[in-house]
Amino acid sequence: MGSVLRIILQRLALGLLTLLIVSIVIFVAVNLLPGDFAESILGQGATPEAVASIRRDLGLDQPLITRYFDWLGGVLQGDLGTSFAQANFATFTGTDSGATTVAAQIAPRFANTMFLAMVTAAIAVPFSIILGVLAALYRNTVFDRATNIFTLSSISSPEFFLAYILILFLAVLNPIFPSLSNIFEGMSFGERLEKSMLPALTLTLVVTAHMMRMTRAAIINLLASPYIEMARLKGLSPMRVIVKHALPNALAPIINVIALNLAYLITGVVVVEVVFVYPGIGQLFVDSVKIRDIPVVQACCLIFATAFILLNLTADIMSILSNPRLRHPK
Amino acid sequence: MIVWTAIALVVMLGIAWAFRFAGQAVTGNAPKFRDMPFGVAYGYVLGVFVLIWLVWAYLQGRSSDPAVANKFFFLRIAIEGLIIFSIAAWIFRLFGRSVGTAWSRKMFRSMPLTASFGILTIIIYAIFAIFAGVIAPYGQEQIIPGVAANIIPGGDPAMGGNPEFPLGTDQIGRDILSRLIYGAQNTVGIAFATTCLAFLLGGSLGFLAATLGGWLDQILSRAVDVLMAIPSLIFALLLMTIASVWAPELGIPLTVFMVIIIAVIDSTRVFRLARAVGQNIVVMDYIEAAKLRGEGLGYLVFKEILPNATAPLLAEFGLRFCFVFLTIAALSFLGVGIQPPLADWGTMVRDLGGFVNFAAFAPLAATAPLLAAGAIALLTVAVNFVVDWMLHKSSGLKE
């Protein structure tokens, strides 16, 4: 057991190191921008004094390394900096609503995105496993071929195509779900669920295909093993052979692929949130990219990368734990 | 409606039982019916009901009452499209089986319908992309004088169309058909160039890392690990933000930056594959022999390793093209990819997307954004079908 713990700790340390390097990459990339925010908000007629004053306020006059460690130290304490656009807006209107920090801006949207991801996972994971088991059970039949074509098509379609198709059939032609997800605080759970149903269904279509194909492949891989042959010769029904004997042993690659697909959700969520105007972190990211609100872009990028690395790490550790050959390396 | 669906599903349970029972009785307990699990019987009944519903919906789509026909218009188009595409793919395969060299005839004989559909679609796209300037009736940036904006597709003057513009015009009066055709040139062409660049970069570095090993391999591999730890679309968006500031200052079009950014991000995936494949080849005896002969690095990589790595790299090329193509489409859809006035499918979907909401009473108006999005989907599906078939064939999987 000691060696397992060591391997996991090793992986965790490696993950943390990767995260650190990724944060450096993000920080340096953002600071490659010519000119800075001070110049761009003041426009053409900016006086050098005004530029210098804004720079001083936002700490843009410090050297790059100092700024990086300031930023990193802040991030570790949950302080993601001040949103340039919001700060500007607050000084312009003279109001201080307290929403000028990036953290305050991101927190509710992050919760919304997590909600969307949870709903998607709750639909997609059982659905894809059931579909995968059925496809493995009735392999090489019309059913298998139809699901193969269907999943291959939905993997390879762009997210916005699937989103518009769902809007067309489930919101416009048959008004079952709303096509815009205007979610606000104080909504009841049911209402929230209804509003986020279409984005969740779109994401489900995107990830189900991959998970289902991997489930099918993992089970079919096992069907040639002697113990499956044995179970079959005992006279068990095909369904029982697969669910009781093949599925538990195929669980390791399936869990792995689920974790990887949840990581994939993170990139998919950006486009889907934009289509449905869902107030999540992806929408915030794209908006900030357009107005070049650097602290927000940095923070969103870091959050996406962290989630991505964490989920990949989970997949990695899961596959070590479930595989005896990796658990006891020679 | 949900209640009715639920009732229908329960009724089907009974029908499924009756179907199995009748099958057993009529065939004198033939093994097929005797051993049939209830789930399979239910599946058959469900399948038949779905088929009946599709036929019914198709007939509804042809109904003379516009309110009913509008509702099923898209389903009707989808069914017609599916049938036409299947027939075209079937004829194409038949054609391929009887014409051409012995090798190509043999290839077509073992080909599933999906793969022949994929090849046919790719050929059609290639023709449109290469001859876009000849086929398109108008220029991609041409705002035709005296023509209204937002003409509805369909070319029927009574419905707000114009026979000269079969797919209508966009929000500033450009011909949508021409822009769709030019989109093949721009979107597909740029994606193809990006993929080639990614392969040139990732492939050569990967082979170099595999051949030389040592510190070069270590540095490149760790750099690739870090780049791959950031989700690619997010990283691309971040870099595009920076590029959008640099582009006007340097006077280089943003599209060039996009090609380079996506090529670099995607070359990391190619690097991984090329390095893995290369490492398997480098330990072969013939490489050792070539090294002992005193061959240079260039000879080793291009004459010894590359020819032996073509098969996996070719399949990867197809998949990589799909990813690059979808990334570019997503970036354009978000407004930071291919820039106007170049015609591009992702941008068209974004600009015309709002028309989907008019589908209930003017279905033709909603077709324009769906056509652009569908054009993207069709090509990636086609490439995936072909790659799927190639992988299946080369792996020799029979299951």
TrEMBL record, chain A:
Q: Which residues cross the membrane?
A: 12-33, 115-138, 159-177, 250-276, 296-321
Topology of this chain in the membrane:
Multi-pass membrane protein
- Signal peptide feature range: none
User: Does the keyword RNA-binding feature in the UniProt annotation?
Assistant: no
Q: Which CDD domains match?
A: TM_PBP2
Where the record annotates domain ABC transmembrane type-1, the positions are 110-315
InterPro entries assigned: BPD_transp_1_N, MetI-like, MetI-like_sf
Name of protein: Peptide/nickel transport system permease protein
UniProtKB/TrEMBL annotation, chain B:
Q: What residues does the ABC transmembrane type-1 domain cover?
A: 184-382
Q: Which UniProt keywords apply?
A: Cell membrane, Membrane, Transmembrane, Transmembrane helix, Transport
Task: Give the main localization category.
Answer: membrane
Q: Which residues cross the membrane?
A: 6-26, 38-59, 71-92, 113-136, 188-212, 224-246, 252-271, 317-338, 358-387
Is-annotated flag, keyword Transmembrane? yes
Q: Which Pfam families match?
A: BPD_transp_1
GO BP term (any one):
transmembrane transport
Q: What is this protein called?
A: Peptide/nickel transport system permease protein
